[in-house]
Amino acid sequence: MNSMNYLTISGLLIFGTGIFCSLAVLMSRPVSFLKSTWGLFGLAVGLWGEGLYLAYSANEYYRALFWLRFLNLFSIIIPVFFVHFVILFTGKSQTKAKEMTAYYVTSLIIIISSLIMPSFFIPSLSPQAGFYAYPNLGPLYYVLFLFSVYLAVYAAYLLIRFIKSAPSVLAGQGRYILLGTAVCFLGESTVFLPAFNIPVLLLSTTLVILYLSSITYAIVRYRLMDIRLAVSNTAIFIGVYALVLGIPFYLYSIGYKLIAFIQVILLATTAPFIYLYFQRKAADLLLDEQRRYQETLRQASAGMGRIKDLKKLLNMVVYVLTHVIQIEHAIVYIYDQSQKRYVIGASKKRAGKRRFIDSIEEHSPLVQFLSNNKDLIVYEEIKQKSQDDKNHGLEQIVKIVSSLEGELLVPVFNDQILIAIIVMGKKGLGKIYTEDDLGAFSILANQIALAIENCLFMQAEKDRIKKEGAQARRESLDMLVGTMAHEIDNPITIVVGEAEELQEDIKSKQGEIITADFIKGIIAACNKIKDNAWRVSKIIKAVEDYAKAESGQYKAVLINNVMIPFRSFLLLLSKKYPGIQFTQDIQLDLPPVWAEEVTIEEILFNYVENAFHAAHRHNARGEGKVSLHIFKRDDFIIIEVSDNGYGVEAKVLKQLFQVPTTTKGSAEGTGIGLYRVRQVVDRLKGQAWAESQGKAKGAKFIAQLPVYKGDASDTTKTSSQRIF
Hints:
alpha+beta, Rhopdopsin 7-helix transmembrane proteins, Beta-Lactamase, 5 domains, five-stranded mixed β-sheet, 20 helices, elongated, disordered C terminus
């Protein structure tokens, strides 16, 4: 009687498990032949369990016989569905299509035979091996038995061959399926033993539930990737609830009905907590390393927003992926607007010589697929789907992903636009990408998208500032050239006049004796010509120096040498802003700084020009004052430019060196000058700031540059040499 109750309960559990697993797989996305076949396998197992339940809960002999013959029909089709699943899993669906058709036809013939001649399979029931009613086997039942054994062995053979040659990810999956299959079919074989009057504990039902649940859980939850975790979770679930049901059932069967009822209530209440506890423990053991690197990924993604340079950002991404997750290689393809394609922004490989594809076309099938689906691509999954669906488009994508040697592709979107593709190679030691990995990488992709957008914005802003800075520089040069033309006119007039007068004097003295006074006059005229020519030369040199772009080739520069061309600029500024009293206090024998002359000139000119403007606008003519003070303090050269102009409010001081902050009128200033000063000073490892007591109280602009402590012999030469 107990055996009958055991088979009744287990049959009911198998029925529920099979139907639930079948629906879970068939309703999950994405749909594939692999999933559909496993869903049909689960459905057949569930209906087999229903027949078991109905057969051993029947009170009449013929009802029990009918349902045992019913479940026998599904015993025929279950191994066929399983072999089909294995063939799909191992990627042999195309080469074994005819073979699979033969198995289905054979099973159909056996089913029809069992319907027409049921007594040739199960003629009757009789007590056997402790069971009050067990099937007696007919001659054709042995055909069914041999057919089932052949299919089970053949499926194992396919899995073993596949494991030997498959990539590490699939090989690991194959091993777990093979192990589960062996355990399941060994347990299932015990069903046949009582027919030969061999007493045995029917473990098959429990093993079927474990096997069916674990593989289904892996397919739905883990995309058939981490079967270890699926098996452990399913085993824990079955173990806990077997305890919940088993103890009260045993107590009930021996007469302790009230205690059994109380136990059911207590265990049903605590079972979920027990299950969650052991599930967490199992996950901690199996996924300890994975969770550590996922935490590192989260920390890395949080810091990405602080990176302003795109190249540095992408290099950090591939470095983190290869070294933290221990994958063979990582590549980031980023969209290049000018080329209309995705080009390598950064790549990293852990070992070996590997040449990556240079670019991916904008209209590539891979790009279109990622743009439409907006989901990660797992290589083995899409390969399986292409084989299942015989989809030519998916086959093209599989070829592209294979050429990239990618096990996982992570798309990076910004406002629904694919801006980058992250290609990740295999994990080390044959480890696999889990569902938790995919979730972590999806979050990482969102953070990378924001960081890339930030870098692109910063780059666009730099380009804009550079363009506006160049425009402002051209406008300044236009002003300088206009003023310079006027300044050059006077000395050139003197040069020409002196030269003509000298020419006439020499002509008038032809044939006469040259006196000492005449020679003295010639020398004086030549000196006058030379002095005015030097004056023109210095003005031209000053403008030339200001027009130079920074080359980035730094050397030891003496501030005092920079002041020689700067004085010509002061002359031009005094013409633009007349009536300004300018004073300077420059410490002698200042040590050099590591820079370019043009960078120092840019600091001086922007500071002094701003000061002249402020003093001119705020004061009546003759009352404006500007002072320049350059001195050494500790290990720094300090440049201070003060004025008695319109001053700067406290709230503006903090952002004064940020674009587009300006204290001038909208038609007079862009804020570019002080921003350029900050850029220059930052590159020189110094600091720049402003001080003011407030509106109408003047201002002081300071630049602090570190003293060059290297070999000072490589300093700029003085400008005492001739320029032309």
